[in-house]
């Protein structure tokens, strides 16, 4: 049964077979077939896109998941969007469940804000709308000059906790660092559970020490500045020993975050919670990047289960580590596509969703 008005075309690229699988699920829910498109790499690694059906005057939705080769993923997306634009599509909506380079959304020393660059490239290619999920920093929406719907995976993760963890009432929601305490608090309030925060872990890439604010001032020369304008020196920050604020003894610990990539911090947090008496440890996040040796580290750690959504393909990682479980979020993506195409309000998808989710 077709649940949409006419003129809807859904394309998927070739970044990963699981990306096409996600596209098929979305198309089935909408009662349409995937659009015909050919995406392949030339011998010199150039990306070529050939749209094999008319998109003139139609609403086009391009679904792209981020594979291990993230730069090829981006180029596939940009070229496909531009091909639809030059083929006179009425509107072109990008569906990127995980927005690439989202970690590089702040200025670091003499680097650049790469998320802003990617956003500008997508808009320049012809994107008229973007659907994504759980941006690493919500301020990334401001990098676009087109509408951006930042959907949330928290309802699906909360449902998993309630249905798949029988004694979840004896759980405590854990933030592995003070910076993720708001997300943990949001989960805890919805489940009516307690909260714990791990403080004192090693500095991560989000710390102030990786930008230019800690660099020493230039050597003061005579008469360079007025004596009254001398900048006071600050005492350098030192992390205290690892402490857990909150009681986890004899409880299930559920660590929540938005991205799981380098799992060192999660493994260290699990060991700390185990030492404090937690008897089961779950890790829940929206985006399971799980790079490099992450599956092996998880398998050898005190973590009992890692739950992520299918915003990013991770079938290979699941084969390497049975502890990794997947939650399907194709339902909310298909409903977002249907509402945008039919010109309906998106507020239903954000009901009871807080800023910190």
TrEMBL record:
One of its GO terms (molecular function) is ribose phosphate diphosphokinase activity. Keywords: Acetylation, Nucleotide biosynthesis, Phosphoprotein. One of its GO terms (biological process) is 5-phosphoribose 1-diphosphate biosynthetic process. Residues 9-126 form the Ribose-phosphate pyrophosphokinase N-terminal domain. The keyword Repeat does not apply. It holds the Pfam family Pribosyl_synth. It comes from the Eukaryota. Gene3D superfamilies: 3.40.50.2020. GO terms for cellular component: cytoplasm; ribose phosphate diphosphokinase complex. Seems to play a negative regulatory role in 5-phosphoribose 1-diphosphate synthesis. Belongs to the ribose-phosphate pyrophosphokinase family. Binds to PRPS1 and PRPS2. This is Phosphoribosyl pyrophosphate synthase-associated protein 2.
